[in-house]
Amino acid sequence: MYKNELDKHIQNNSLSNSFILFGESSFLIDRYTKILTDIEDASVLSFYFDEYNYSSAKAHLSQASLFGGRNILIIKSEKKIPKKELETFIDLCEKNQENLFVYAYYGTDYKAYAKAFSKKNTMSVRFFHPKEYEAQNIIAQIAKEKNVNINRDAILHLLNLHNSDIALASNEIEKFVVYDKPITTKDIDNLVYGLAEINIDDLIKNILNKKDFTKDIHSLLEHGEDEIKIITAITSYLTQLYMFNIYIRVNGTPNAMEILGYPAPKFVVDEKANISLKFKPQTYYKLHKLLLEAELNMKSSNIDKEAILLSTLLRLQRFL
Fold it and tell me: Which domains can be identified in the chain, with CATH numbers?
């Protein structure tokens, strides 16, 4: 099943009590895990990634609730849980309708989950990256939940600022909660940190591919970005690449959870892994040293920061 079918079941109050959530959108997997398990006075046991323990999970669904309510089991993982263990949890939910089980799978090997439990009452739901109109509807719903007054134009502006990254746009809604007035596009420009990740990604790709980046820099500065913030954002990005490089050299394949500390879309992981291997550790050392020296110069002198930024990035390209 897909998101729209799950939404209908939620509206019609016809949900199962066990769920397998998977797909391309980690944001939607997270969001619907929260929606499905938001039950008052429930006894909740959550396992995050490597914390999973089969015996403890089974015991939680097997015993009566300590508070006389529902027992809820949540497992979030990038690694596949053995099918027999999942079936055990699903069976325990079928035997006791007061139980609730959600398996949020963030890995990429999820095709088998679409029909793996068709003979059970469990609901297997695949989440795709939201299309533009879907992303707008989701942000509008989140704003409504948080009592934020924001119109469609402002939502579209917010999404465009973050290049349609719904997770980043959703996080920004939190900033507007304290404002007891309609949020406008001007408010978004003033309150949102406009150095969207994807813009920095594009800038860095141009730099690393030895392409002209001056238009990108001037555009960012014209929109009010600070030279030091740009330098630190590039340093942070290169640090991530270095972490990918080292991890792959040691383990062979990348693991976003272990490298970044959170699950990331496969296309992001693959892209950063490929870029990271283009450079040797010694090159990363030179790049970091150059950027840190530039940041220090900007903070300790009154000279032209833009000139330092441009000259630093041109020197950086010569190291590649």
Answer: 3-127 (3.40.50.300), 132-191 (1.10.8), 197-319 (1.20.272.10)
- Residue 311: phi and psi, rounded to 5, are -65, -35
Measured between alpha carbons, how far apart are the two ends of the chain, in Å? 47
Tell me which amino acid residue 166 is. I
Q: How far apart are CA 320 and CA 283, in angstroms?
A: 7
**296-312 average pLDDT score:** 86
Tell me how far apart the alpha carbons of residues 75 and 25 are, in angstroms, rounded to a whole number.
17
DSSP string, 131-144: PHHHHHHHHHHHHH
| CA–CA distance, 147 with 28 (Å, rounded to integer) | 20
Question: Cα dihedral angle (52, 6, 143, 265), rounded to 10 degrees?
Answer: 50
| Dist. CA 133–CA 3, nearest whole Å | 14
Q: What is the spatial distance between Cα 176 and Cα 188, in angstroms, rounded to a whole number?
A: 9
What letter represents residue 235's amino acid? T
Classify 23 in phi/psi space as left (phi over 0), alpha (psi -120 to 50) or beta.
left
pLDDT digits (tens, 9 = 90+) for 167-221: 878 888 888 888 888 998 888 877 775 444 446 778 888 899 999 998 888 877 8
Give Cβ neighbours of residue 148 (< 8 Å, ≥ 6 apart): 173, 176, 177, 179, 183
Smallest CA-to-CA distance from 150 within 168, 160, 164, 136 is with 136
Distance from C-alpha of 317 to C-alpha of 211, rounded to nearest angstrom: 9
Which amino acid does the sequence have at 158? L
